[in-house]
Amino acid sequence: MTALEKLLQKNEEGKFICVGLDTDLKRIPAHLKNYTDPVLEFNKAIIKKTYKHAAAYKLNFAFYESNGDTGLKTLEKTIAFIPKEILTIGDAKRGDIGNTSQMYAHAIFNQFKCDASTINPLMGEDSVLPFLEDPAKLNFILALTSNPGANDFEKLKLKDGSYLFQKIIDKVKAWNKKNNCGIVFGATKIEELQENIDRFGKLPVLLPGVGAQGGSLEDVVKLFKEKKRTGFIINVSRSIIYKSEENDFAFASEKEIIGLNKIIKGI
Amino acid sequence: MTALEKLLQKNEEGKFICVGLDTDLKRIPAHLKNYTDPVLEFNKAIIKKTYKHAAAYKLNFAFYESNGDTGLKTLEKTIAFIPKEILTIGDAKRGDIGNTSQMYAHAIFNQFKCDASTINPLMGEDSVLPFLEDPAKLNFILALTSNPGANDFEKLKLKDGSYLFQKIIDKVKAWNKKNNCGIVFGATKIEELQENIDRFGKLPVLLPGVGAQGGSLEDVVKLFKEKKRTGFIINVSRSIIYKSEENDFAFASEKEIIGLNKIIKGI
User: Once rounded to an integer, what is the mean pLDDT over residues B220-234?
Assistant: First the structure.
């Protein structure tokens, strides 16, 4: 199964929530701190309770890298623990000159064995192409992000009247020769999604910015349904994994994702 | 000594070459492969022979990450081996939403103990600011890179007539409240540097793209001298560290950097 097939399969099952494993040692319940690897124990407990309901897992590399080589071991073990039929996204937002991107792609896909990556495209085509070599992988390229800083450059207006993020989307479509590209598009404002969804073509979309960051889950799903469009996942991190910061955290995460799936089903 | 002071001190000594430790296991001499950590042995040998002549060392994180947790240990040990008076740049080109950039900054500065970082600013202000908290560090923000893909987005013309990379430079100047920002500006075409150098203000500059990638060392140094401007380093990676791929590699790297320093002195 290719990464894209995994995603579409879950969408078919009515699953659209990507669980973001942005696990911060400082925020996990006290009783886990007696384990050799508390972050791994936390992740395993969350995965056990959510995998039947999740469309994907997104691993934010920063949270693991900040613990150095130990953190990367935790990252590797977490990914190995995720059932093979569920898409794993290495959210590393890399991008560098060709020979360096090649190394980053190797790290994400071969070393950490992720199905998918996120890519920062600022440095252009030769910084992106090394990630796109394997048609079985999937690459979500940053177009419009969900943070306030998106206004600084991504939303700059170009001479031809389009926005930078729109130019990025057009380039991604051109790069998508192996059907293994997607985009990241922040869902903080539904109007932006409405205005641009047709421009996406068939590109799979990873949508951050729903919930804590402001966008409405209902609005996003409704729009994709109106467009008769699958191939999308909505990332939810903190409001699932830290739903409870007590001993019942894993149960609380399960309850939360089931609740989100119910909302989606009802639309 | 702050990171900026380290850089300026070396410039004062007539040193402007930043040695890029993009060490690829596949390219290091056969006899080193018997060591437990061949990349570390290679780096140590290069550092021993070049540190008296180098203005800085740049560690390309991709080359270490691609070896997983083992690679990160090599990275840590390499940085620890570099004499304290020489600037170490963690070339990771990170950038993400605020809480994530915070984690990346922690990894680069506290975990790997680099003096400086490189940052990808696509996601804007809140993705950059977490790196700028410590005035003793230095942050080279990507403005114009030296690869062909720089044409795709960095050189797009904006509605106001400027280029995206120029807008980035202006933002970096605004962010530079703690005097710990710099820029990456590719030296592939001297005309681009000539046209933009006044826009840099006093920002320190990390210049890739000299040598193998096309720019002329003489032209770059001459221009900065004409402008009576220090606070810049020219990155050279492969043509120093792989000058010879035989047993004499470390001697060859020393000879190469001494040669480059002589050219600079003669300008």
Answer: 97
pLDDT (0 to 100) of residue B156: 98
- Contact (Cβ atoms closer than 8 angstroms) between residue A22 and residue B100: yes
B191-209 mean pLDDT:
97
pLDDT in tens, B119-154: 999 999 999 999 999 999 999 999 999 999 999 999
CB-based contact (8 Å) between A98 and chain B? yes
**pLDDT at B212 (0 to 100):** 58
pLDDT of residue A214: 64
Distance CA B159, CA A167 (A): 14
Measure the CA angle with vertex A27, ends A115 and A88; round to 5°.
5
Q: How many CB atoms lie within 10 A of CB B84?
A: 9
User: Cβ contacts of residue B149 below 8 Å, gap of 6+?
Assistant: A123, A124, A125, A126, A127, A128
What residues of B are annotated to the active site? 93
Closest CA of chain B from A103, distance in Å: 5
Q: Residue A120's domain spans which residues?
A: 3-266
User: Distance between CA atoms of A163 and A186, rounded to whole angstroms?
Assistant: 15
Please tell me if residue A37 touches chain B, with a CB cutoff of 8 Å.
no
Query: How many angstroms away from the CA of B124 is the closest CA of chain A?
Result: 4
Which chain A residues are Cβ-neighbours of B171 within 8 angstroms? 152-153
- Identity (one letter) of the amino acid at B62? A
Nearest alpha carbon to residue B117 among B137, B103, B146: B137
pLDDT band at B171 (very low <50, low <70, confident <90, very high): very high
Chain A to chain B Cβ contacts (< 8 Å): 183
- What pTM did the predictor assign? 0.97
For helices A68-81 and A38-50, give the axis angle rounded to 10 degrees.
Answer: 20
- How many domains does chain B fold into? 1
* Beta-ladder partners of B89: B58, B116
The beta-carbon contacts of B165-168 under 8 Å, at least 24 apart in sequence, are B166/B196, B166/B199, B167/A153, B167/A156, B168/A153, B168/B121, B168/B141, B168/B142, B168/B143
Q: Cα distance from B13 to chain A (closest Cα, Å)?
A: 31
Is the pLDDT confidence value at A43 over 90? yes
| Cα B245–chain centre separation | 23
Identify the pLDDT of residue B233.
Answer: 98
DSSP A114: -
| Cβ neighbours of B97 in A, within 8 Å | 145-147
Whole-number Cα distances in Å, A141 to A133, A145, A176, B110, B267: 15, 10, 11, 29, 44
Under DSSP, is residue B98 helix (H, G, I), strand (E, B) or coil? helix
* DSSP code at position B163: B
Residue B85 CB contacts under 8 Å (≥ 6 apart), including other chains: B1, B6, B9
The helix/strand count (H/E) of chain B reads as 11, 8
ipTM of predicted complex: 0.97
Q: Which helix (H) or strand (E) holds B144?
A: strand B138-144
Residue A226: give its domain's CATH number: 3.20.20.70
